[in-house]
Amino acid sequence: MKTESNNDINKRSKQTILFLCMAMICLLTACNDVFDVHPYDVNYKGETHHNKQAIAEIEQRFASRDSLRIAFISDTHGWYTNTKAEIDDINKRNDIDFVVHCGDLTDTGTKKEYERTRKILQKLDVPYVALIGNHDFLGTGDQSYQVLYGSLDFSFIAGRVKFLCLNTNATEYDYMAAVPNFDYIEQEITARADEFDRTVIIMHAPPYSDQFNNNVAKAFRRYIDFLPHLMFCVYGHNHNSVVNNIYSDGLLFYGIDCSDHRIYRIITIRKEGYDEEEVHF
Among the listed ranges 69-73, 147-151, 175-179, 183-187, which one has the minimum average pLDDT value? Predict the structure, then answer.
């Protein structure tokens, strides 16, 4: 019986290893789509830091306006069909100055969700800004938000009204962070003070909800009283369209419904006050 020499065995082993390497390369190439993007990758192509650009446009276009008509939407999550219908309905109106999304752009904070939602929101005919919601924190979602939209707390001024947009998702930090950020609120009381006379606060989770740091809910109410002429507050999160007098002191909080319920709210701000309407689409 003929036996293999050591040279033959070594040669065959090298051929086997080479074959396996080539097969692995082919497999990885064929499965490129599978391994190309991690679901929580934070490297994005296309538009980033959207809010900064949108704010610049809003402030430039509406600096001297006597009235503002704003559409508030929220909690679009993964309801892409209804979100598209919501955007279409807003575009058909031709009377909206800008749109505010009150958070929960995604359901689980993944890259694909952020990208799909961004693509839909980009079809708006008017500028929009977006806040971060608690679902947007999942995984590396908060990092994605900062890449795509910017700071978690931000403000802008239009028609001499300051819109103060706050991150109130305290439980996403296990209450270990300054959320809501009182230092930021204090800064905004006087920042650009000569440019605004009235204030509107926008947040995702309202006081006394499961996401808010309710240990400071009373302090929050006292703190925001220092803002010049606080008109009202707007929030999302609870998936219902309501008007709440949360602190029983006359300050109204407008709850914005989710896109799945096919409802959003329009608030028109004028020199003499404001009015609001609930829109079913």
Answer: 175-179
Contact yes or no for 256/240 (Cβ under 8 A) = no
Distance, in Å, from the CA atom of 200 to the CA atom of 232, rounded to the nearest integer, reads 6
The first and second tokens of residue 184, run together, are 């930021």
Answer for the pair 51, 121: CB distance below 8 angstroms, yes or no. Answer: no
1 part of a folded domain: no
List of residues 6+ apart from 183 with CB closer than 8 A: none
Find tokens 């819109």 and name the residue: 163
CA 141, CA 146: separation in Å to the nearest integer? 9
Mean pLDDT score across all residues of the chain:
92
Q: What is the mean pLDDT of residues 158-183?
A: 97
Please provide residue 280's backbone torsions phi and psi, each rounded to the nearest 5 degrees.
-105, 130
The whole-angstrom separation of Cα 176 and Cα 234 is 25
CA distance 100 to 89: 15
Contact 160, 197 (CB under 8 A): yes
Same domain, 111 and 16: no
Give yes or no for a contact between 120 and 127, defined as CB atoms under 8 angstroms apart. no
pLDDT tens figures, 7-54: 554 555 555 555 455 555 454 444 444 445 689 999 999 999 999 999
**Residue 165, Cβ density class (10 Å: 0-12 exposed, 13-18 middle, ≥19 buried):** buried
Q: What CATH number is associated with residue 77?
A: 3.60.21.10
- pTM value? 0.87
| 19 and 73 part of one domain | no
Whole-number Å distance between alpha carbons of 268 and 96: 9
> What are the pLDDT digits (tens) for 176-199?
999 999 999 999 999 999 999 999
Whole-angstrom distance, CA of residue 190 vs CA of residue 155: 12
Instruction: Give the CB-side neighbour count of residue 211, counting CA atoms within 13 A.
Output: 22
What are the phi and psi torsion angles at 52 (to 5°)? -60, -45
